[in-house]
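Suppose you are handed a protein chain with no further information: no name, no annotation, nothing but its sequence. What can you learn? This example shows the usual starting point.
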Amino acid sequence: MLCCKRYQIIACLLLLAFWCYSTFAVAATIKIGEINPLTGRLAKQGSEIHQGVAVAVAEVNDRGGLNGRQVELISRDDQSQPDVAISRAEELCGWKKVVALTGGYNDSLVGPISEVAKKYEVPYVASASLQKQLTQRENPYFFRVANLQGFVQPLCGILSESLRPQRLALLHAATPGSTEFARDLRSCLQSSRTRQAGGPCARSNPNDFVFNNRTLFRFNLTCFVRQLKENRVSPKAYIGPFGIAYESFIHELGENAEYLYSTFAWNPGITNPGTEAASRDFVERFRSIFHREPNTTNMHGYTSTRAVLAAMQNVLNQKKPLTGPNIRQSLAELDLVLPMERLAFDKQGDPHHYQHLVVQIQKGKFEVVYPPERSTASAIYPMPRWSQRK
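A reasonable first move is to predict its three-dimensional structure. Written in structure tokens, the prediction is:
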């Protein structure tokens, strides 16, 4: 009888020890959440954002975590649907009790997530968000690493300072984001002598094109370029600010991609000055995990997550608890140099220094042609007519 009681006591102690260990192990991790469109119409872009997020988390954990605590990433798929995005944000903030959110692609998804984050006072750093309206609403818990002006300013610069076309067409989709982009670019160019024709379906015979349509890019931008060739339409320049600056685009179009212009904020080998070593480390880690070259979309996911992790580290360094208000305050004070940008936020949560580079495809690779201080080659303008190409 005494022996049985002794075994019962030992069993209870073992169970208690296991419970204590499990509780400590859970408490020792720091939970952050990410919500991305991993399925649905935006699955490709959402998956690329997720990959960048995963690299940032792996990087910090491989270095010992945050003050010895591993970071636990809880990923959720919003299925490219706003109502699902809200549900996933409610789950992560209300039930999973994450201390911060990252990721996000497309303002129709990022916007609803940001409202849930505000309700729970959970800081949210969005990876890919451009629409002005989102930071004009009072939401102290919303930050993002990209904004529309990062595209508009360099494009306006190369058009008004360098290319100086006599006539310009702005072709864009009739969506809020595309319309906002075209309106801002048109406004920036008003002081120049450029004559403009514009609209969702503008018909003209311009010398130059500026094209902005994410949806069309994803499904038939390559077809559009091929139709230009088949119909012998030879603009002096073709600028696609969204979508052309990907290696996959060059592989798909081949020689037909030559001389096209686009923009990106980062690319392997083209990084924020002074961050060459950090950029190489990111590329090597990404390759080791995903067995391919990273792109600018991956870097946006990495950048937003690095912001979250740096803010949390600063809170811990100050011996403060990892609460939403403390992390939010740390994000507001952040000044971090990363491969894509020097990251510091204004009072609305927009990045101060987000800036794209204008690139042109020359001999099958991307060459920076604007701004001048970052140029790797001179712009070829006007680009050769289709009949003049080999």
